[in-house]
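User: I'm new to structure prediction. If I give you an amino acid sequence, what do you actually give back? Let's try with this one:
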Amino acid sequence: MNPSSSHSLSEIEEQASLWATRLEDGELTEIQCAELDAWLIADPRHRDMLATFCDLSAGLDQVLPHLSALSETDARTTSTVTPIEARPSRWWWLGAGLAAAASLAFFFGPARPPVDQLERIATAIAECRSVSLSDGTVVELNAHTNLVFEATTTERRVRLGSGQAFFAVTKDPSRPFIVDTPLGSVRVTGTAFDVRTVTADSIAVTVAEGAVEVRLGESDLRSASAPIQLSSHSQLSVQDGESEVRQLSAEVLANELAWREGQLALDNAPLREVLDRFAHFHGVGISASSEVSAFALSGRFTLADLDEFLLILETVHPVRVIRDQSGTIRVVGRE
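Assistant: Good question. You get back a string of structure tokens that encode the predicted 3D arrangement of the chain. For your 335 residues, that looks like this:
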């Protein structure tokens, strides 16, 4: 994984969630319209992520391409900054598109029951928090995690784009609880489990109590699989297209969930994976050269104290930590 790319994706998710909330809360101000306009054309991923976070994604699919085309045309034909007062006409199309999508959904009927509850939760760099959802489920979020929770009359659904969360799900057999991730979904009715998805091609699902069903979708590295059943003290991990299911002892399970106490517990873990965990928590780029990336690490470290971990790393292993002016960290072999 490239930590810098992960950091960029997390920032995009946070901004998309913020813009989606503003759009749903009501009309944007002229200044906000200009800001959103600039944000949408700055990176092609912005539009897709905004559509993911918006309820009326169908409307966005129809409207935002038109909006982007207008923005690109302006950029090509105008050499000076367009006054804000001249811009609201293009945003009328966005409002009209959203309203049209809402009207169509009302007239023809939604594809699924209407959402009774919609909650967006995000943690910042190096921030962990615990929240109670509207159905009583308790969720603990690791740093740099974004999720959206929707509750209908027939199901409860979480969209976890990136990060890690532990769910203590309130039992409700009539409404299954589903966690959607870029790699697949986890389905339960009431149990306690952990989901970690830091990159689009990796996931780890760890069950503390009860049972879950995992459905892995198709990817560039793997075809879609049959549902995978996990019971208490078991874990499914997928990395680089390879999946593994294993049973965990009480000690190993506690180590896997140590992040809930702000700790990272390791038992012969490859250095590259450990650095990925610290990189995601702190939102910085951290990598290792090929000759040291497979070094095995054991011990218990405080996630919030990156400097202490790197100092211990240099003391115990023949490595050197290099920091550049941008804050990026590189671990290389000691000469």
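You can read the tokens as a compact description of the fold. Here is one thing that stands out. The two ends are 26 Å apart (CA to CA).
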